[in-house]
Amino acid sequence: MRLRRKNKRTALSPRATALVLVGVLSIALAAFASLVFNGQLFAAGGPPAPTVQSGPSDPTNQTSASFVFTDNLSGVTFNCSLDGSTFTLCSSPAGYSGLAAGNHSFKVQAKSGAQTSANTEYKWTIDTTAPPAPQITAQPANPTTQTSASFI
Fold first, then answer.
1. If we measure between CA atoms, which residue out of 79, 75, 67, 71 comes closest to residue 43?
2. What angle do CA 46, 49, 53 make, to 5 degrees?
3. CB contact at 8 A, 33 and 45
4. Which domains, and CATH codes, for the chain?
């Protein structure tokens, strides 16, 4: 590669410029190729994000939750997090019990070797507040000789 001076600036010759461009394109293509595995296009840095197939109803009055999840890439392991806790190794289905009333968040990520996918999040609310007691605002007289009654 030969540098030519032109107006006090250092410039690459046309041939050197072409070689640099070819090198940059080669690196870009190699990076893209590394994102394709088993015919699937990955997000940079890991396997595809898992899919949560089922979880608790939202809202629910149940203080336990079970999550079923999968990933398109076989052979991955999973890490799970409940309510912002540290991700730990888990498997599907993942179950939790003794949950408090309020808003909750379950996150799962797939791991393949040293690479980790983006998180998939599932949010739900536990509401254990009992509904108000029914109130009868109209009823038949007591005692009555009526053979049918209506309550409102």
1. 71
2. 155
3. no
4. 3-34 (no CATH), 43-126 (2.60.40.10)
In terms of Cβ atoms closer than 10 Å to its own Cβ (0-12, 13-18, 19+), residue 71 is: buried
Place of tokens 């070819």: 22
What is the pTM (predicted TM-score) of this model?
0.62
- For tokens 């998939």, what's the residue? 120
User: What DSSP letter does each residue of 72-125 carry, written as one string?
Assistant: SSTT-EEEEEETTPPPEEE-SSEEE-SPPSEEEEEEEEEEETTEE---EEEEEE
Mean pLDDT of each 10-residue bin along the chain, 152 residues long? 55 57 48 46 72 97 97 95 98 97 98 94 96 85 84 76
The answer to whether the CB of 91 falls within 8 A of the CB of 22 is no
In sequence order, what are the residues at sequence separation of 6 or more whose Cβ sits closer than 8 angstroms to the Cβ of residue 76? 47, 50, 110, 111, 112, 117
39: tokens are 């015919």
| DSSP type of residue 60 | B
Cis peptide before 14 (omega within 30 of 0): no
Q: How far apart are CA 8 and CA 80, in angstroms?
A: 59
